[in-house]
Amino acid sequence: MPIAPTPETMPVIVGIGEITDRPAEPHLGLEPVRLMAVALRRADEDAGGGLLARLDSLAVVNQATWGYDDILRTLGETLGRAPAHAVYGPVGGESPIRFLHEAAARITAGESRVAAVCGAEAQHTLTHAQKLGLLPAWTPGVPFPPRKGGGSYSHPLAQNLGAMRPLAVYPLYENATAAAWGQTPREALAESGELWSRYAAVAATNPHAWLGKPYTAEEIVTPSASNRRIAWPYTKLMVANPNVNQAAAIFLTSLAEARSMGIAEERLIFVWGGAAASEPRDFVQRGRYDRSHAQEAVLREAQRIAEREAASLDVIELYSCCPVVPKMTRRILDLPRDAVPTTTGGLTFFGAPLNDYMAHATCGMVRHLRGLAGGRDHTGLLYGQGGFVTTHHALVVGTRPPSAPVTAADEAVQAEVERRREPVPPLREGVFGGAAVLETHTVLYDREGHPEHGIAVLRLGDGARTLARVRGDEAIAALTDLERSPIGTTGELGDGGDGIAVWRPVA
Question: Do residues 432 and 157 touch, judged by C-beta distance below 8 A?
Answer without folding.
Answer: no
